[in-house]
Amino acid sequence: MSTIIYEEFHQMPTNIYTRAVDRIIAGDSLAVLKGVPDNSVDLIVTSPPYADRRAKTYEGVKPDKYVEWFLPISDELKRVLKPTGSFVLNIKEIVVDGERSTYVMEIILAMRKRGWLWTEEYSWHKKNCYPGKWPNRFRDAWERCLHFTRQKKFAMYQEAVMVPMGDWRHARLKNLSETDRTRDNSHVSSGFGKNISNWVGRDLAYPSNVLHMATECGNKNHSATFPVALPAWFIQLFTKPGDVVLDPFVGSGTTAVAARELKRHYLGIDISREFCEIARKRVQSAERVDIGKVHTKRRQTRDADTEMPLFVLSATNSGD
């Protein structure tokens, strides 16, 4: 892959053709995104600062202002995303005055009005969440991973994230009944059905939409680091080697690390120069991605190091 570059956005020359992939750029996401060409990104995976969180770094957006703040960014993300691309938004509602805020639901509804399709929602189960006690709720052990697309038909490589079926199949599939050999429709008229015999001889199954992964423990330099395995899973599911992965709130570079290790091109943006420097060092060290027990199949694709199209960075000075 190309040389990893960390740049200050306001120091970058405007109206100059440059290959803006495999880079970590320090600058305001909205300003930098305006310089990224239309339909140039295959996947966006990001976790923006939650409402009233990371105030020292991101100034802390209030819950009642969050939608107003995020929508212009989502418009730029929709513009730069290819029609067949996907946008995965890791986010969670915070508690305000004893109840959950609704800003995440408001974001979903507002984005749908602006042309996004809310295609799916994945739940990230944080296996090592912090213990605690609250008077009216239990500890948070999961976060949303909202999947948005521009159209109903999009790139998806389900075989890349298949999982082992487990030893249960040996006993369950050994002696099939007549019902097991045909499509058995749900007895509660839900419209769902199954044919157990379809799984005979298979070692792998498609996963559920609940991802069981521990939070990141090795990186102490960022206050909200998701595990490398999380973006890696979505990168495998929605892209192929050589595709471009964008994280407009790259933080300490987890998405970029996953993309590089999986032979995808990356573009990371963050307003914090400190985090960008951390991200640059992490990507350069390029330690092997630990994707847990996720099974991956090799696909015949083009070389990941093929020449990428030139990007035009023409946005105005960020003023940072």
Strand order of the largest sheet: 1-3-16-15-4-5-9-8-14
Strand % is: 15-25%
Tell me the CATH topology of the largest domain: Rossmann fold
Distance between the termini: 30 Å
Q: Please count the beta strands (DSSP E, at least 2 residues each).
A: 17
> In the CATH hierarchy, what is the class of the largest domain?
Alpha Beta
Number of domains: 2
The total of helices stands at: 8
The CATH architecture classification of the largest domain is 3-Layer(aba) Sandwich
SS content category: alpha/beta
**Uncertain regions: pLDDT < 50 for 5+ in a row?**
13-18, 287-320
Following the backbone from N to C, one meets helices and strands in this order, namely: EEEHEHHEEEHEEEHEEEEHEHEHE
Helix content: 10-25%
Biggest β-sheet, characterized? 9 strands, mixed
Provide the descriptors you would attach to this structure in a database record.
320 residues, alpha/beta, Rossmann fold, 2 domains, nine-stranded mixed β-sheet, two-stranded antiparallel sheet, 8 helices, 17 strands, 22% helix, 23% strand, disordered C terminus
